[in-house]
C-alpha cells in the first residue's frame, strides 16, 4: 500500500468514527432523523472527495512511473561482492573527514544508522563507521538525483551498509548529533552493498543513551543488558562499545609495550592440563580422548616452570577459566589473563615497583594516545579520569587495617578484606592520598595461596601485594617460594595433596632463581578504569554461569 | 671419605690384586715357599708404606682443618632469598660481557652448567644465562681464594644457580666452547643461591648436541624426545630451546606490529562455546555447570561476528583446540592460533596480498632483529635461511596442478593436495621460482569450508588461498560469504545442520561488509621457518592425543 493510499484510508476511517460518535451523541442516545440525514449527506460528500483524491493519486503514480528516472546509474542495490573487480578508487573513512576537505569528492562505505525524509525531495542519512558518524544528504536536482533516488534512500533499512560518492560540504550550523559535525556529505551516488533483511531487536540509538539522557527524558527506550548480550553483534556496533574494545586492545598493547621494553619474553602455556592443581576446586573438566583433563584456572604453575627453565622474565595474555558459580558484576567464567613472572636478584620490590610503573605507563598512554576513544566512551558512560601518582603509592596491609579501623570498620589484623571493605579503603586512600591507584603490600600469609613467600621478619605476613584501582582489586601477586623444602612444608601445612604437584615441586629441585609476579584480569582493568559498572560490558562475548551464548 | 683416603685404599687393593696374581702365577699354580716369602715381605713393606701415607694424609687433613680458611666470607650456600635486603649492586648479564669490559669487576647470577677441577688449586665453571655461556675460573691465591673455596666450587651440583663477583679478564685463547668466548670471569666471590638437590634426568650438554655432533662422534649420549618432554623444565634450558621460544615470541610480536600499523584491533573471543559448530567433529566437550559446552576449534565465527559488528579489521592470538586423534610431526591438540579477519572494499586480493606482505615483514625482521637467536638455534638445528621475494609469488591452484602433473604427479583438477604432494609442489616451486614462500590462490570450492566465497567466474573454484613455507602449509584463508541467503544455500548444499549456526547466519542478516581473513598456527610457522622436524620442539608444553603432561 502506498503512503497516499494509507492516508486516504485513514481519513475515511476518521470520518466514520466521527459519524458514529455523532450518531450516539454525547449521552449515548440516537439522534433525530434530520440530523441523521445531514450526516448521511456529509458522509457521501466525504466519500466522493476521497474517491477523487484516490483517482488523483493513481494518476500521479502513473505519471511518476512514466517519468524518466535520470538517476538510475547513481543508486540501487549493488550486486553481491564476490570480488568481481578491483578499481583504483581511493576510499575515505568517516573519521578522516574534516572541513579542510571541503568541495572534495569522496568515496565511503558505511552503515546507514538512520534515514529521515524531509518532504519527498530530500533525505538525511546518519552514516556510521566504527566510532565516527557523519550526516549525509540527498536533494532532488534536475540531472543526477531523481525523486526515485531520494525515495530509494528513504527506504534503506537502518544498519544496512552503503557505498557512497559524496561532496564534502561545510554546513551552515555544525551537526551536533554526529561525531564529525563540521562537514556534511552531499551524496551523488548511493549503492546498498549489504541490506538488513530482518527486524533489529533494538536500534543503535536506543542502545547508545547515557544515564544523563535518561535523566533528561525518562520516556526514552531502554535496552536491558540481557537483550544486548543476546544480540551482541548489534550491541557491539554502538560507538561506545566500539571504543571500549579499542581501549581493551590498547591495554593489552601497552602491557606488552612496557614488558617488551623490560626484556620480557611472551609465552604460551597450555590450557589443557592433566590434574586439577592449584587448590583443585573451580576447574572445568574436559573429556580428553579416553581420559579426563581440566582447563587451567591460571598459568601460575607454568609461568613459574618457565622461570625454573631460565626464561628470566615472561608474560602471557591468554584465556583463564574459572568454574566458580559466582553471578556478580565482576566475575566471569572465562576472562583474559594478563600474567607476568620475573626472576629477580635481591628483593621482590624490584618487581612490585616495576608492575606499578607498568600501570602508570598504561594509564598515561591511554589518556594520551586513546583520547578520542575515551571521550566516546565517557559520553555514554560518564566518569572522571582516574587520579594517580607518577610513582604509585605503596601501603602496607597492616596500615590499611589501621586506616579502616580509624574510620570505624571492624576487622581483624589478619582478616581478608571483603569487597565493600576494599571499596571503603579505596575511598579513604583517595581522601588521604589523592590517588585512585595504589599498591597494598605485605598481606597476611594465611589468606594467600600456598606458593606465597612468607615475610622474613614476621611469618604471619607474606611478600605479597594487590593493586587497586577505584577501590577494586585489579592485580594480585607475590614473591613465590622457589625452595622445594619450604614449598613442600607449606603444601602440607595447608593440607593440599602434594601428589598433584609433583612436577611443580620437582621444577624447584632442579634449581630455580627467586622470582615474583602477578596476574591481571583484562576485563576488570578496563571496567574499573572506565568506571563501568558491569564486567559484561568489557568482555566481547561474556561467559558466566548462566551464559555461554552467543 | 676424603679423596686422599680413597687413593690410599685403591693402592692397597691394587697391591693385593697383584699378589694374588703372583701367588697363582700365570698357569694358575701355587708358587714356591721362597717366592711366597719374598712376596710376603713385599706386602709388609707396601702395607707400611700405605700406613705411612695414611698417617701423612691424616696429618695433612688435620693441618688443613687447623689451617685458617681465609676465604669464608667469599663463598658458601646463601641463605634462602626471602627478600631480606636490597643493596645497590649493579648486576650484569652474561650476554652483555665483552672484551671492552676487561679488568672491570662484575656481579652475575647464573647457572653452573658444569664444574671441572684442575688439580686441587683450580676450578673451571661453565656459567649459563639464557642463550649465553661464559667460562668462570677460580685459582687458589694467598688472601681471597682458599683451597677450601676451590673445593666448594668443585662440589656445586650442575644446574645450581650461583651469585658471583668476578673480574673480567681476556684469555690467552678465545674460549670456543662458550658463546661469550672473548672474556673469562676470574671469580672472587661465589655463593649458591639455589642448589640442585635431585639427580638430573639428563645433562644440558647431552640435550644440546646437533646432528653434526652425532655424526662426528656417534658415542655421544642421545636424549629421546619423550624424555625431553617428560622433563621439559630441564630441556627448555638448552640455549637452542631458549632461543626457539624467543623466536616464537618474536613471530607473535612481528605479527602484531604489522597488523597494528595496518589499523587492526586485537580481540579476545570466547573459547567456551555452546554448540559444536563449524562442522561439529573434533571438538572437546566440557562440563559447564549443569550442561555441556565445547572448546572452540577456531575463532572463525566470532571474528566474523566482529566484522558484522563493525570492528573492520581484527586479529587474535589465542589457543585453539582440536580433538583430532592425529599423532604426526605437525599436529597438536592445542596450539596458538594467529587469526585475522578484515573487511574490504572491493576485492579479497587486498587482504591476501596484505597477509603476504605481513609474512615478508615477519621473515625480514626475524633475520635482522633476532639474528643472535637464529644463530644459536641453527647451531643445534642446522638449516638454510628461507628464500623469499619482497613481493611474494602468487600461484593459482590450477597452475599448481599443472606443474605437478608436468612432473609426473597424478592428481585430479579438483582434488585436495596431500602432504607429500604439497612438499613436492614446494620443491618444484623452489626450482622454478627460487622461493621457499608463496601463496596458492583459487582453491576448488569443494575442498574448502562452507563459509568460503565461490569464485564469481567459475563456481567450481573459490576465493580462497593457502600460504606455504618450505613446502608446508602455514596459513589458510579466504573471502567469506557475507550474504545470508548464499550462506544458507551453501550450508544446505554441504548437509550441515543450519540450526547450530542460527546466531552466525543472523549476524549477516543484520548487514555485514565483504571480508576475508585467515589463520596461522604459530608453532607451525616457527617449525618450518627454522626447519625443525617436529612441532613438539616449537610448543612450550606440547599437547597431543597421548600427552597432556607436564
TrEMBL record, chains A, B:
GO biological process: one example: aspartyl-tRNA aminoacylation
Source organism superkingdom: Eukaryota
GO molecular function: aspartate-tRNA ligase activity; ATP binding; RNA binding
Subcellular location: Cytoplasm
Ranges where the Aminoacyl-transfer RNA synthetases class-II family profile domain occurs: 245-542
UniProt entry keywords in alphabetical sequence: Aminoacyl-tRNA synthetase, ATP-binding, Cytoplasm, Ligase, Nucleotide-binding, Protein biosynthesis
Reaction equation(s) it catalyzes: tRNA(Asp) + L-aspartate + ATP = L-aspartyl-tRNA(Asp) + AMP + diphosphate
Any Pfam family the entry gives: tRNA-synt_2
UniProt GO cellular component terms: aminoacyl-tRNA synthetase multienzyme complex; cytosol
Primary localization class, coarse: cytoplasm
InterPro entries in alphabetical order: Aa-tRNA-synt_II (IPR004364), aa-tRNA-synth_II (IPR006195), aa-tRNA-synth_II/BPL/LPL (IPR045864), Asp-tRNA_synthase_2 (IPR004523), Asp/Asn-tRNA-synth_IIb (IPR002312), NA-bd_OB-fold (IPR012340)
Region (Disordered), start-end ranges: 24-58
PROSITE patterns reported in the protein's UniProt record: AA_TRNA_LIGASE_II
Basic and acidic residues composition-biased segments: 37-58
Family recorded in the similarity comment: Belongs to the class-II aminoacyl-tRNA synthetase family. Type 2 subfamily.
This protein's name: Aspartate--tRNA ligase, cytoplasmic
Natural source organism: Coemansia spiralis
